[in-house]
Design goal:
The chain is an alpha+beta fold. It contains 6 helices and 11 strands. The chain has helices spanning about 5-15, 60-65, 115-120, 130-140, 170-185, 190-195; strands at about 30-35, 45-50, 55, 80, 90-95, 100-105, 105-110, 125-130, 145, 150-155, 155-160. The strands form 3 sheets. Strands 7-4-8-3-9 form a 5-stranded mixed sheet. The protein is elongated, with a radius of gyration of 18 Å. One of its GO terms (molecular function) is sequence-specific DNA binding.
Length: about 200
């Protein structure tokens, strides 16, 4: 999460006793950051930011195989699938007219958006990427956003996730308040999508 690094550095400088944000499964972790459409019921979750996604491919890949104009055409493409977001290799789209589910055949499956970004930049296929990673490469002409008339679904948010009992900890409250304040007035992860980056 590149944009989070300076934010976390700032709060660590303000309160150096706060430790790493990692996995709640470990007993010494107070808060975890999760990008999801549905936080798990056993945790409390505070929505920090919207995380926009887009379907992207490199210009070289599209020049070789063509640019899909409809989600159904993705069945003829090499698709790079995030296994954490699509357990069944199905991509979901919405438009004003319809909802569409497309069963794709993954050329690559990975649980890392960074790994899929790198594969996309290398011309390996079409990927479903978060805009906070894709936007700089779209602006630089290294990636093209495709199927922009269709909205990816479901919608994902960035959540601060914690056990309910931990919220009474002043450092937990301070971290959550800081993250919320940092995203007020403009979400750096959605700027590319909001400005209509193609």
């Amino acid at each position: 999460m590149p944009s989070m690094t300076p934010m976390i550095s700032t709060i660590l400088l303000a309160d150096p006793v706060i430790t790493a944000i990692a996995n709640l499964a470990y007993g010494d972790i107070d808060v975890a950051l999760r990008i999801t459409d549905s936080p798990r019921a056993e945790y409390s979750a505070h929505c920090i930011a919207v995380v926009d996604f887009a379907y992207c491919a490199s210009p070289q890949y599209l020049a070789k195989v063509g640019t899909p104009q409809d989600p159904a055409q993705l069945t003829a493409h090499q698709c790079l699938v995030n296994s954490q977001l699509s357990a069944d290799n199905s991509w979901h789209f919405t438009s004003l007219e319809k909802e569409t589910w497309v069963d794709v055949r993954p050329a690559i499956r990975a649980n890392s958006s960074l790994a899929l970004l790198e594969a996309t930049l290398q011309g390996q296929g079409v990927a479903y990427l978060p805009m906070y990673l894709a936007s700089p490469h779209i602006r630089a002409g290294k990636l093209c956003r495709i199927l922009s008339n269709f909205s990816p679904a479901p919608k994902y948010n960035l959540y601060a996730v914690y056990f309910p009992s931990r919220y009474q900890n002043p450092r937990v409250r301070a971290l959550i308040d800081f993250l919320v304040a940092s995203f007020q007035g403009g979400n750096p992860w959605t700027i590319g999508a909001r400005e209509g980056v193609q």
